[in-house]
Write a structure and sequence with these properties.
mainly alpha; rod-shaped; about 100 residues
Length: about 100
Amino acid sequence: MKTLILAGAVAIMTATSANALCRAPGQAPKPPQSFDRPYPPACLQVPPGRENECDPRELDRYAEEVADYIKKLDDFVFAAERYAEEASRYASCEADEARETLSN
């Protein structure tokens, strides 16, 4: 009787452990919105050959906004790469599990 219970427990653990190994990826990351992209100040919109009349503080503020936007894009790239790796591992695991099911 103990052998039968032990065999049943092993069979259940084997059947459920394969499913436990395949972990679905989390939610896909969202890219920065297009309205997050900074626009150059109007003082930079001058015809060729004319010098802009931008306040240095305005240019500094614009440079900071561009740097912040680039950081958001870099963060998105990192998150998207991590998500793609998780999705690839999940798909491979599911495929391996399906192959194992066919071979049994």
